[in-house]
Amino acid sequence: MRDFKEEILAIVNSDDYKPMTTDEFKESFGADDSEEFKDMVKTLVSLEESGKLVRTKKDKYMKSPDSNKVKGTLSMHKRGFGFLRPEEEEIEDVFIPPNAVNGAFDGDTVLVEVETSTRGDKTEGHVVSILERGVTKFVGEYSANVNYGFVVPDSKTFKTDVFIPRNNNLGAIDGHKVLVEITKFPDSQDQGNPEGHVIQILGHKNDPGVDILSIIYQHGIDIDFPDEVLEQAEGIPDEINQDDTKGRVDLRDDFTITIDGADAKDLDDAVSVKKLGNGNYELTVSIADVSHYITKNSPMDEEAYHRGTSVYLVDRVIPMIPHRLSNGICSLNPHVDRLTLSCRMEFTPGGKAVDHEIFESVIKSDYRMTYGNVNLMLTDKDQSIIDEFKEVYEPLLAAEELAAILRAKREKRGAIDFDFDEAAVVVGDDGTPEDIVLRNRGTGEKMIEEFMLAANEAVAEHFHWMEVPFMYRIHEEPKEEKLSKFFDFLTGFGVVVKGKGNQIHPHALQEIIEEVKGRPEEMVISTLMLRSMQQAKYSPESLGHFGLSTEFYTHFTSPIRRYPDLIVHRLIREYLFNGKTDAKTIRRNKSELPEIAKHTSERERRAQDAERDTDDLKKAEFMMKHVGETFEGVVAGVMNFGMFVELPNTIEGLVHVTNMTDDHYNFNERAMAMIGERTGTVFRIGDKVEIEVMGVNLEERLIDFKVVGMPDRKRPERKQAPVTIKGDARDNKKEKTRSREKKGSYNKGGKKKPFYKSVAKKGKGKK
Length: 767
What we know:
The protein is of the alpha+beta class. Helices cover 29% and strands 25% of the residues. The strands form ten sheets. A five-stranded antiparallel β-sheet has the order 6-5-4-7-8, with no helix packed on it. A five-stranded antiparallel β-sheet has the order 11-10-9-12-13, covered by helices on one side. α4 packs antiparallel against α16 and α10 packs across α11. The radius of gyration is 29 Å and the shape is globular.
C-alpha cells in the first residue's frame, strides 16, 4: 500500500500551495488505480479528522489554520477527568478537565484543542469533536423501573448510567449483571444518558462465577469460539501426517525434553542440550509449528488475530486457539511425533554465540518434565527424583551449566532482572479464594527462560540483518523525566545515581537492584523502577530491548498463546524456507505488520488488565475473612490521601489519612512520606508497619487498613438510621422515547454522494 500521508503534507506545506480537490490530488499523484485512489482519499479524510487539513465548501483541501489540534484516544479517570493519548507517539499526553470532556467517553477517538496556557506541568485541552466511539459494549448492573430500566456500568471510568427502553432488557431484573450495547450516544451539548439494549444476561451479581464473568465481558474478551472456528479445528488430525515430515530435519533421535508447570497442557517448547567435542555447547530450541495448521486468513487465524493472546485468569484460561490444537496436535507431548520450527545455536564456554541455524523439524519428546521435579533434582539434589529420572539427569546438568553461562553473559552486558515472587490466588470449585500462594522462579524456570531468550535473540538478529520486514519485541529507553524522578527518590535511601536519565545504561539499574537486595524496601524500589520504564510492545522496527540490554529481540517461542509468535513463524517460513523476498512480498509485509503490531500490543494490555482485575477482586474477597486481624507489611506508596501498605502475600491496602488519628499528617512529595505535625512521626516508602484490616469494598476492589496503635476515628453519632426515599419518575416515556429518536437526513436531489464526501465533516465516526 502506497503511503500518501507524507506526499500530501509535502504538497500542502509548500509555499505555493493552493487548495486542491480530490481529483486534483489524484491527477497530481497519478493515482489512477482504484485501490490507490481509495487509499489516497482515506489519507485525506484522516488528515482532515486530525485537524491537519480543512475541507472547504467547494470540497477543496486547505492547510488548517489551527495547529493546536491533536487526535488521539481519550483515557478517562473515575474522578471525571481524562487524558488524551495522542496518535503521534512523540506528543505528550494532554490533560482534559471534567468540564472539557464534551460528551466523550473512555476509549473514544477524539480531536482535542490544546490550550495555550497550562496549569502546572500538565498540558491541558478540551475535546472539540468525537471521531469514533471506542466502547459500545460494557457490563453493568441492571436496575428496573416500571416502564424502563437503567444499567450502572461496572467500569468507574464510564460515569453515566445507560437508559434501557422497556422492550430492550431481555427480561433482566434488579441485580442482574448484563452485557449492554449502546445504540445512541448523547450529543456533546446533550446532558442526557446514552441509550442501549441488553444483549446478554450474565446472571445475578451474587451468583458464583458471575464476578469473574463480568470482568471478562467488561474487557471485551470472547470465551467461546465461533462455530466455523470449531469446525475447522475438528478437521485437524490427532496425529501428524508422515508426508508432512518430508523435507524437515529429523530430530526424533535427539534427546529432547519439555519443562513446564505441573498443570500445563499446551507444551509449545522443547529443548535439547549437548556438550560438543570442541568444548562448546549446542542448544536446540524446538517450537510447535502452529503455522502449519493455522493458515493465513482462515477462520482460526482470524479468530486468533482477534484474540491476540491467551488470557490467564485465577479460575480459567481463555485460549487463543481451540484446545483441540493447543492441547493436542500442537502440544509437544512425550513419545509422539510433532512438527516444529527449531533454532539451533552453538555457544562457547564464555557464552558467545558462534553459530546458529533456523529450520523446519520433526521431534519426539522423550520426557515431560515439571519445574518442581527439575528443581528437586538440580537444587535439592533429591536422590529419589534423580533415580526416577536418571536418563534426564546428566543432560539436565549440562543444561544447567549452559543456562548459568548465558545468564552471566546477560548480566555482564547489563540486562535487568526483576526477580519478583509471583502471587497466585488459589480458588475453590465455587470460585471462592482459599489461599494466596507465592511462587518464586527456581533453577528450572530460570533455565528455560534463558534458553527462550537466546532463541528469541538469535531469530531477531537473523532477520534484522536480512533487512526484511519483521515482527520485533521492543522495549524503548525510559523517558528522562520519569527516570530522573526515580533517581531523586533513591537518594532518600542512600543510593545516588550519577548521570542523566536519558543517558543511563540498563547496567546501572541492575546495580540498583543488587544494592537494595535484602532491604525492607527492596520490593518497593524494584516496583517503582519498573513503573519508571516504558512498556514493552510489538513493532515492525528493530529498536532493541532496553530491559534485556540487547539490540535484537522478538517473540518466537510461544505461538500457541501469542499471535505475534505465529506471525514470526509465518515470516520465517516465507523468507527462509520458501525464499520469497521479492518486492511484492516485502511491500505487502511492510504495509501489514504495523497494524498487526499495534493490535497485538493492545490485546496484550487488555489481557493484562483483565488478569489484574480478577486478581484484585479475589485478593479483596480473600481479605474479607481477615477483617480485624493484624499483619506486618511495608509502605509501598505514599499519596496526599494516605499510604499504601503491601503485605508479604503481595496484597495491598490503603491506610487513608483520615484513619491516621494520632496526629495531623502532611504529605511530603519530595521525600514520598507522611509526616506528623505534632509528633514528627514519619511514614515513608519501605518502612515496616503493623496494620489491622479494617474492611473491604468488593465493588471497588479496595482494602482498608489502619496502623495498629492509632485510636479509632471519632464518627458523629446518628440518632436514627438514614431514610431512603425512592423518587419514581413521572410517566413521560413517550416524550422521552420521541426525544431519543435519531433525526434522519437526506441528500437533496436523491443523488448518492461519493463516499469521501460523507465522511469526517462533523468529526463523528462509527458508533
